[in-house]
Coenzyme Q-binding protein COQ10 START domain-containing protein
Amino acid sequence: GSVVPRAPPSLILSEVKTHDGVDVDIKLEGLGGNRRRISGGLYIEAPPRAIWDTLTNYNKLHEYIPNIAESGAMLQPDGKVRIEQVGVISPTLGLKTRITLQVEEEPYRTLTFTKVQSREFLEFEGTYTITSPPSGGGMAYLKYIVEALPHPLLPVGLVQGKIRAEVPPMLSAVRASANEYQSMRVRAMG
C-alpha cells in the first residue's frame, strides 16, 4: 500500500520550453504530499515506428539520452523486459540513481516503465505515448509522463526540478535519434 493518499492533480506550472529549436510542452502537477506528475511532449517529424524503435532500443538509451549513465535490458522468464538504469543526479557531487524498471509494451503506441527497485523513489512510473495527428503526414506527437514519489530523505524540490529540467533535452534527444533512424531507413530502402 501507499503511504501518501493520492490527491487530484493540482497544477504547479505549465510552460513551453524551446530545446534545439523545438517547442516542448511541460506541465508539473502535485498529486498529494511529495508525489509529482511531470509531463512533456513534442512533435517529431518521423513516423511512430521510428520513434518506437528508438525508445525500445533499451541497451543503447544511454548513448543518446542525457543523464542516463548506463542502461541494460534483461528478458524475464515471463517474457517481459526489465531494464536497469543508472542516472546522474549531480555530476559535481557524484550522486547517482539506480533504478530497475518493468517495461510494458503496446507496440507503436504506449511504453510504460514501472519501478521494481530503487533507493531514491518509493514510486516511479514513466509512460511514453505516441500519437499520429489525423492529418498524418508522417509526423507524430510523443508525450512522456512521469509520476514519482521520491524517498522522504530526498528534497522533493530538487527531484521535481531535476526531472523537469531533464524532460526537454531527453525528448529532444529521442526526436533527433528517431529522425536520424528514419532517414537511414529511407536511404536503405531507397
In short: Residues 11-184 form a domain with the Alpha-D-Glucose-1,6-Bisphosphate; Chain A, domain 4 fold (CATH 3.30.530.20). Helices lie at 48-55, 61-64, 156-189. Strands lie at 10-19, 22-30, 36-44, 68-75, 81-90, 95-106, 110-118, 121-131, 140-150.
